[in-house]
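Here is one chain, start to finish.
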Amino acid sequence: MSSPPPDAPAILPIFATPLAVVSLEGMLGRNAELTALFRTRTSEDYRDPAAPADPRCFRSREDLFEWPVESAVHLRRQMLGGICAAVRAVNTYPDAEFDALAVQALARFVIVRPDGCVPAATAPMASWYAVYCVAAPPAAPARADSGTVRLYGVRNGTMFLDAANYQLRPPFETAHQIWRPVPGRMVVFPASILHEVALNRTDAELLLVAARVRFVHSTQKPLATW
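Its structure:
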């Protein structure tokens, strides 16, 4: 192996991907109410017709933010506030210009039962995706990834793998990332990231709310419908 140069190289992280974890303190007292509400709406009237029927995982229609129910209205306000805070933090807009952006969002609730999962997908027609945890079982001792939101690092999928890039240190590693749902917390990330909810290896249900979001500037033409 050749000797290192006398001056250390300048190493810069490029193509960085933001991932925000937001605590929605205003939701902690509402989670039990939301849990009861969601369980009463696990019927065909509320199931997403585009998703195949699955006894181990129920996915509702994406109209949750339109429900005229106080707890759902409060959830919408809290989630959109947290999402906007996360997006604002990684943008260069002045506050006044960012506040003028129009926010469009669709949301659904998801109940992942024992041995259930949500298959890997991206979120179409959106720039950001958010997952809020309403209720979660304890971690499964034998499976650390049980019920986690797994985000796939596919950017370097065509990279030739050898001894020099197999063990890259953070933030340059190519490993996938996971987020463990915790009641009252929400994760926000770019909607283009391939993600899934890993198999629930516990004997209890995992309740999540997933939202796809996009922002419209006043100078933009109207976006296509969802």
